[in-house]
Amino acid sequence: MNRALRAASGALAASVPALSHIDPARILFVFNPHMASRARVFPLAFDATGTRVSRDGRRRRPLVRFRGCRVRYVIEYGPSFLAASPGRRLRTLVHEMLHISPFFNGTLSRSMRHAVRGRGQFEMLVRAAVDRCAAAGGEAAFRYLDLGPKFVVMEWRRPFSLADGGVRTEKDLRRVKRSDAGIPR
Ligand SMILES: [Zn+2]
Question: What is the pLDDT of residue 140?
Answer without folding.
Answer: 84
